[in-house]
Amino acid sequence: MQRYKVTLMYDGTDFAGFQRQPNKRTVESVLTKVINKMAKNPQPAIKIYGSGRTDAGVHALAQVVHFDFPFNIPADNMRKGLNSMLSMDMEVLKVEEVPATFHARYDVSGKRYLYRMDMGEFRNPFKRHYTGQWKFPVDLDKINQACADLVGEHDFTSFVASGAQTRTFVRTIYEASCWVDKANNELVFEFYGNGFMYNQVRIMVGVLVEIGSGTRPVHDILRLYEVKDRKQARRTVPAAGLYLKHVYYQGEDPEHPTKLPQRQR
User: Fold this and answer.
1) Which of 18, 44, 120, 214 would give a disulfide with 27, using CB separation of 3.0 to 4.6 Å?
2) Residue 141: count of CB within 10 angstroms of its CB
3) What is the 3-state secondary structure (H, E, C) of 33-86?
4) Which SUPFAM superfamilies match (predicted)?
5) Can you tell me the distance from the alpha carbon of 65 to that of 249, in angstroms, rounded to the nearest whole number?
6) Is 10 marked within a binding site?
7) How far apart are CA 121 and CA 52, in angstroms?
């Protein structure tokens, strides 16, 4: 058995998220079907393991999965073979042969996300699957002051949706920033941390745009850490604007070393 690490991108519009669900089209189910077809449908079937889940409508610029394949195929041939069979809303960017000890989820040391927010007064039907929308004026300096409050190790209880399956809400954010993409009239948010929980990025962006619009104090994030109350964070921005940009593994970013979580067997 050869273990492969696969980096892929996908348009999340027509997927019900990454994780397999009964009677729904998901990234995991589509990719698993193609991989098993390439392997001539072995028994037991090949399973794939992702770096983490993305929700319905969320996009990925570089998601990572691994799987064990019963034949040793050169990595580039594996990439070409998968792409020849995948639908147009998914593309494999890179395939690597990795040791059997590699795990796409448990070896992750950090993730980087983007969020795109259209600033047009009217909803653009051609961007509705790829951006959120915020039509109110914002103060970019205030937003970036608030972004600085996100950096560091904090308890993000106020920023996690109900249903999050995690033992602790403490996470570390290494970088948080916002800028204006003038060509597309968009606010672009970028976050890099050792891990993000269910809807965390979308809730953080909701708080930041309210700060930028003046409906929250600049440093309200510090208060939200203390109250540990999801209801006080209020808004969850749409999934369409969220992109998984990069998944980091140990040794890829020595500037932000992260202790790996203990593997679950």
Assistant:
1) 18
2) 11
3) HHHHHHCCCCCCCCCEEECCCCCCCCEEEEEEEEEEECCCCCHHHHHHHHHHHC
4) Pseudouridine synthase (SSF55120)
5) 12
6) no
7) 35
DSSP, res 132: E
**Quick one: which of 106, 65, 69, 68 has its CA closest to 265?**
106
Determine contact, residues 17/77, Cβ cutoff 8 Å: no
Side chain identity, residue 113: Y
Q: 194-241, pLDDT tens digit by residue?
A: 999 999 999 999 999 999 999 999 999 999 999 999 999 999 999 999
Question: Furthest-apart CA pair in the chain: how many Å?
Answer: 59
Evaluate whether 2-98 and 109-249 have a shared fold: yes
Q: What distance in Å separates the CA atoms of residue 174 and residue 155, rounded to the nearest whole number?
A: 14
* CA atoms of 59 and 11, how far apart (whole Å): 5
Q: How far apart are CA 13 and CA 29, in angstroms?
A: 15
Report d(CA 28, CA 48) in Å as an integer: 7
Q: Which stretches of the chain drop beneath a pLDDT of 50?
A: 260-265
Per-residue pLDDT, 262: 45
List the domain boundaries for the chain.
2-98, 109-249
Res 255: pLDDT: 72
**What is the structure's pLDDT at 165?**
66
Q: Which of these is catalytic: 55, 68, 89, 155?
A: 55
The CATH classification of domain 109-249, taken from the options 3.40.50.2300, 3.30.70.20, 3.30.70.660, 3.90.550.10: 3.30.70.660
Per-residue pLDDT at 265 = 30
Q: Are 81 and 214 in contact, with CB atoms under 8 Å apart? A: no
**H or E stretch covering 178:** strand 170-181
Domain 2-98, CATH 3.30.70.580 — does that match? yes
